[in-house]
Structure formats: C-alpha cells, structure tokens
Amino acid sequence: MVNAMIEVKQLHKSFGSNEILKGIDFEVKKGEKIVIIGPSGSGKSTLLRCLNYLERPTSGSVKVEGQYFVEPQNKFSEKHVASLRTEIGMVFQRFNLFPTMTALENVIAAQVKIRKRSKEEARKTAEHYLNKVGLAERMDHYPSQLSGGQQQRVAIARALAMEPKVMLFDEATSALDPELVGEVLKVIRELADEGMTMVLVTHEMKFAEEVGDRIIFMDNGFIVEEGHPKEFFRNPKNERTKAFISQVEHPENMVAH
Amino acid sequence: MDVLNNLDFATAFRALLPDLLGGLWISVEATVAGFILAVVIGVLIALGRLSKSKLLNGILVVFLEIVRGTPLLVQLVYMYYVVPLLIMLVVQFWQPSFQFTFSPFLAGMLGLGINYGCYLSEVVRSAILSIDKGQTEAALALGYTNRQSMWSIVMPQAIRNSVPVFGNYLVMMIKDTSLLAFITVSELLLRTQTYASQTFLTIESYTILALAYLVISLPLAQIMRLLEKRLLKHG
Ligand SMILES: Nc1ncnc2c1ncn2[C@@H]1O[C@H](COP(=O)(O)OP(=O)(O)O)[C@@H](O)[C@H]1O
Ligand SMILES: [Mg+2]
User: Fold this and answer.
1) Helix axis angle, A78-85 relative to B133-141, nearest 10°?
2) CA-based, 20 to 30 A from A229: which of A254, B38, B94, B152?
3) Reduced DSSP (H G I as helix, E B as strand, rest coil) percent helix, strand, coil of chain A, to 5
4) Which residues form the ABC transmembrane type-1 domain (chain B) (predicted)?
5) With an 8 Å Cβ cutoff, are A82 and B143 in contact?
6) Which strand ranges, in their side-by-side order, compose the sheet holding A59-64?
C-alpha cells in the first residue's frame, strides 16, 4: 500500500531561459485535498500540469502511486505516460469539452477509446456521472447549448468517468460568471466529501479554507509557505503570504504603483 | 440573324445527349475517386508538414511547390505517358521483361487526386492549426496518446471545419475532369469535341456541354451548402 498518491521531488521547469518552477517538493497523500494559491504568473498552472506531464519537467521527478512518469535514467515513453494519466483527472479553466460531441458523448468517448469499455457500459457510467453533477436532463445537449457552469460540470463528469485516483482542478471556476460559480464549487465539494484525492488551484479563498486539508502558497516558482487552512489564513508567517492574503481579502486597500 | 437561324439544337440534342450521359457518368466517377484520393493525400501531407521531421517537411514543401507551380494539364499528361515509363525503367533493372501502363482513367484519377491533394493539404493543415490547443490537452489528460488525440479529436473537427472549402474544390474538380480529354478519357469534353468536329454543330455542342456541367455542379453546390449548415450548427 503506497500512502503517497503524488510525490514531487526537486521539480524544475523552464520555458527557454525562463525558469518558472525552481525546485518544488511536495506530497499528496491518499484522500488529501491540497489547495495551491498564489499570485498570477507564480507557476501554479505549470506545477499542476507537471503533475500529469502535460508539461514535461526540465528536471526532478513526479510519481503517481509509486510509479514514475519517467523512471530516472529511462527514456520518455508516451504509452506509459498516457496510461498513468488515466489515473489522474484534470479539469481546465476553459472546460475544453469536445464541441462536436453531446455532453453524453463527451463523457463516453475516452471510456471506450482508452479504458476499452463496451459502449453500453460506458453509457451507463456516463449517465451515472452526469447525474451526479446534476446534468441528467442535459445529456443530449452540445457544449454550445450549455452554460459555462454546465459545461464545467460536464468536464468534471468526463474526468470522473475514467475513475481516476486523483483529480486536478486548475481554476475551475475562474472563467465563469459569478452566479455560476456556486454550482461548480458544490460539485467539487461533494467530491471532496466522498474522499477523492484532489489538488486544486483556486482564487476562491473561502472555498480553499473549507475544503482544503493543506494550503500551499506559491510565489515566483517556489513554495513559500504551506500549512493547515485555519492556521494558514489566520496566522500566515511569511511576509509575502501575508501580503497576498490581505490583497485577496481586501483588494480595495491595494494601491497601484 | 442568319447565325441564329442556322442553329440546330434539336439535332444536336438528339445525337449528343445519349453520348453525353455516358461521359457525364465517367466525369462523376473520376471526380468521386479523384476527390477521395485528394482528401487522403491532403490529410497525409498535412500531417507530414506538421510533423517535427525537418527532412520530411523539406521534401513535402518542394513537392507542393512543383505541383502548384505547374499546370494540371501537364501533370495529367505526365501521369499518363511519363510516370508508367519511369516505373517501367526502374522495375526493369530487376525484371527486364516488365511492362507497365496506366489506363487513362487511372492516370486521370491519380493526377487529379495528387494535384487537388496538394491544395487540400494546406486547407487541412491550417484547419488543424486553428483547433484550440485545449482540445489536445483535454484528450491527453484523459489518457489519449498524441496520435489518438490527432485522429479521434483534432482531425474530425479540422475536417468538419474544412467542409465548406472542400466543397469549392469538389465543384472545381468536376470542371477540371474536362482536362482528362487530353489523356483520351472518354469524358464529356472529348465526346463533345468528337461530335462537334464531325457535324460542325460547334455552338450547339458546347452549349449542351456547358449545361451538362451545370447539371452536376449546381445541385452539388446546393448540397454542400446544406451540409455546411448542418455541420456548423455546433461549436
Ligand atoms: N508554454 C509556455 N511557454 C512559455 N512560457 C510559459 C508557458 N506556460 C506558462 N508560461 C509562463 O510561465 C509563467 C507561469 O505561468 P502559470 O504557471 O500559468 O502561472 P499561474 O497559473 O500561477 O498564473 C508565466 O509567466 C507564463 O508566461
Ligand atoms: Mg494559471
């Protein structure tokens, strides 16, 4: 039994000469909910995308359930990376639903193509998860016929239908109109309550505090501070963390320089 | 108005029409076969051009320039008369008794397919490039390999978005089948030419020929418009 679901060691990522991640170490335990916060451009998305190898780290390692994406000394194998990715669901800021497929087809596609389930089984599973995210009535709609909040819920169902062991959320509600944020957060919260292991990047601080087991604050490519939500928000230690929290909680106090 | 009085459409219609129906069928066959080949070639060249291989890219660019820089007529003549000779010469190194020709129709289909494939490849390539990167990322995140994501997520969308442009090329190809007359395919133009030169009913013959092309291309254009509307309804 491996306790660490995700294990990240000395992760570095550069784009050209621009180093975005400057040595990240952390672990996600089974069932744990990690929330990553930090200013825009600090490398949160890049880190999350390294966790399923959508970005290839420049150096360092990522393990999922004890398995490396790329064994040290070994060559990159696309097949192996792709098969590990099926254990990790990802939800994007901009949904990225397949526009030519209905909601149901979106949720069925990868189950059949990648998980090799039969059409009937995939359909049953898809209906189950669409039902779970509250879209039983909208299964036959195309993404263009759904609101942003509905689209994001389909995207969550699509990821869940693969029955992953971890879910990654990259600002899942940032592209939504304010009145649609709640319905998506509700679905994520239910998932958290069921014990799903999750890593979330979000700007919803209240949600982070309520759902997270641990908060990680990133700035400028480093993990600056991490801790239990209550402790972290009541009593931040680092100056930059303090500044960030007060800026997010009281944007009206920020003076433009 | 002597000229008009001398026109004899009735005779021309009676004599030419049955003959043209056969030619029409050949033109349609050549177009269908040629266009399917063109789409296959277009997709393959587009993928080659998007591959990371510099060598493959270089070869394809040179090939595209040659095909687009020379007339289709010349290419058809080459395909019919020269390409079989070249194939024969090469194979005869091993097998001196080897003989080889293309039927006119096969040469025509290959020539049309390759020529149009080159133009379609650019359409497909830019359609692929215009698909949101998020589509590929979503597929990869679900466990698709790059190849699977290209073939089952990106390519279908790219092809769908290309349908309106494909439609224009399809109508153009129908008209370009007239060039097959030069490599002795007994299609519409050749049959019309033969009849016109025998009877001197030139105006009548070519007017009927023009109508014959319209009979195919007008409904086709209409079908493409309907298809386009259906396809573009979502996303
Ligand atoms: N594919 C890329 N190529 C070049 N630079 C990139 C790429 N992706 C992200 N970056 C850069 O990395 C930095 C961090 O980006 P990101 O991880 O998206 O930050 P965050 O999610 O915290 O806002 C930004 O400055 C961004 O411009
Ligand atoms: Mg981001």
Assistant:
1) 80
2) A254
3) 40, 25, 35
4) 24-224
5) yes
6) A18-29, A4-15, A59-64, A67-68
CB pairs under 8 A between A and B: 72
Contact yes or no for B142 and A99 at CB 8 A: no
Say if CB A5 and CB A28 are below 8 A apart: yes
Ligand number, closest to the Cα atom of A175: 2
Atom of ligand 1 nearest to the CA of A49: 17
- CA angle B171–B177–B179, rounded 5-degree value: 130
Residue A175 contacts residue A95 (beta carbons within 8 Å): yes
* Interatomic CA distance for residues A142 and A106, integer angstroms: 9
Would you tell me which residues 37-96 of chain B have a C-beta closer than 8 angstroms to some C-beta of chain A? none
- Chain A residue at shortest CA distance from B146: A78
Pairing of strands A166-170, A88-91: parallel
For domain B2-233, the CATH class is mainly alpha
Give per-residue pLDDT as tens, A51-78: 999 999 999 999 999 999 998 888 999 9
Q: Determine the atom of ligand 1 nearest the C-alpha atom of A201.
A: 21
Domain ranges, ordered by start, for chain B: 2-233
Q: Cβ(B132)–Cβ(A96) under 8 Å?
A: yes
pLDDT digits (tens, 9 = 90+) for A139-150: 999 999 999 999
Nearest CA in chain A to B154: A98
Biggest alpha carbon distance in chain B?
77
Instruction: Write the CB contacts of A121 (distance below 8 Å, at least 6 apart in sequence).
Output: A111
* Among candidate residues B188, B151, B163, the one with its CA nearest the CA of residue B23: B188
Neighbours of B194 (CB within 10 A): 15
Strands (E), chain B: none
Please indicate whether, in this complex, the C-beta atoms of A88 and B234 are within 8 angstroms of each other.
no
**ipTM of this predicted structure:** 0.94
Q: CB B143 to CB A94 under 8 A?
A: no
Distinct helix (H) and strand (E) counts, chain A:
9, 10
